[in-house]
Amino acid sequence: MKSLFALAAVAALSLGAQTASAKDLALAYFMGPTHPMNKAVFTPFAEKLAEVSGGALTVSMFPGGALNSAPPKQYSILLDGVADVAFHLPGYTAQLFPVATSVTTPGMCADAVECTEAMWRAYDLIEKEFDAKILALWANDPQVLYTKDTPVRTLEDMNGLVVRVTSAQDIPFTEALGASAVSQPVSVINQNLANGVVDAVSIDPSATMSFKMHEPANYMTTNIPGAGSAFVLLMNKAVYGALSDEEKGWVDQASGKWLSLEGGKMYKAIAQRGIDVARENGVEIIELSDDERARWDATIQPAMDAWLASEVGQGKTGAQITAIMKGDDG
User: Fold this and answer.
1) Cα of 155 vs its chain's centroid, Å
2) For 186-205, how does the pLDDT look when each residue is reduced to its tens digit (9 = 90+)?
3) Structural contact between residues 325 and 114, judged by C-beta atoms closer than 8 angstroms
């Protein structure tokens, strides 16, 4: 099941992995093996698959970009057969996944578990966006704003800042606040904030631990408009299609909504910890007051109205997708 190209890449990189059997799946992700998503999603999938199959289907992990180090390319290496299973952030290629990335729309959901549930309500639409088998579909907590030189306490402080955002979906809302928005992979956000390539990084607070954002940041602003970012664990469609009905059943048991919620629960649990760790390391935590947050919400409302009225994907407007994700579609 593992492609010859993947095997060649592994050998060339001298990873020392075991030679894959005909029933072994190569799972690729670009973060290190200590990243919380490995513990919450990738390893549980591998362990459950081995359990339900009695060891007939196993998973070999290739962390740290071993099969491809570019975060935006993870979906491509899956389609190309370099990996059998791959982790991907739809926000990196948001134009391909407009429904999935709609979960990041401000006000869509309040925490990682709620955002994961929202995505699953839109599962039928999201599934059509991917040329792959979806194994898990989850989200993190709403964004905070890490800054180095400029404490963001008011709407006016956003004026002229260059802000790294997770998805193209975030751009109109960020720019409505007076900032310039750029999309960058998480692998460069620490360095780019430290070097002044960007003035601010918009990402969920778990980035304090995952990407050591407390090191370049001096300030963190919370209670800003936003919602969760989408994550997916995908299986190559041809690989899944080549499995027997029994093997497909094993994969289905080892994946799905239960696995997705494990990812959401993990992110919800560590969100506050990210804020606490930043504070413990000298980062000033700035929480927008309710009145100030209301000013931000009012400022982005024209951009929100435009998105709600626009056709986002599959003939659905932003308003219709919002109703589906919030469970208000009847």
Assistant:
1) 27
2) 999 999 999 999 999 999 99
3) no
Q: What angle do CA 13, 14, 15 make, to 5 degrees?
A: 90
- Which among 324, 320, 269, 298 is positioned nearest to 37, based on CA atoms? 269
Mean pLDDT score of the chain: 92
- Give the pLDDT score at 42: 98
Sheet holding 58-62, edge to edge: 58-62, 24-28, 85-88, 230-236, 132-139
Q: Read off the amino acid at residue 44.
A: P
Q: How far apart are CA 250 and CA 245, in angstroms?
A: 9
Q: What is the dihedral of CA 14, 89, 168, 76, to 10 degrees?
A: 50
CB atoms inside a 10 Å sphere around CB 189: 23
Q: What per-residue confidence (pLDDT) applies to 105?
A: 96
Kindly give the parts of the chain with pLDDT less than 70: 1-22, 330
Q: What is the pLDDT of residues 95-118, one digit of tens each?
A: 999 999 999 999 999 999 999 999
Q: What confidence score (pLDDT) does residue 299 get?
A: 98
> Hunting for tokens 């929480």 — which residue is that?
287
Cβ atoms within 10 A of the Cβ of 70, count? Answer: 13
Q: What is the pTM of this model?
A: 0.90
Residue with tokens 């579609």: 329
d(CA 194, CA 82): 34
Q: How far is CA 87 from the centre of its chain?
A: 9
> What is the structure's pLDDT at 330?
63
Scan for tokens 């927008």, then name that residue.
Answer: 288
CA–chain centroid gap for 17, Å, is 27
Determine the length of the chain.
330
Give the burial string for 169-179 (b: 16+ CB within 10 Å, else e). Answer: bbbbbbbbbeb
User: CA end-to-end span of the chain, whole Å?
Assistant: 42
47 contacts: CB under 8 Å, gap ≥ 6: none
Write down all domains in the chain, each with its CATH number in brackets.
4-139+228-269 (3.40.190.170), 144-227+271-305 (3.40.190.170)
Residues sharing a CB contact under 8 Å with residue 107, sequence separation 6 or more, in sequence order: 225, 227, 297, 304
Greatest distance between any 2 Cα atoms in the chain:
60
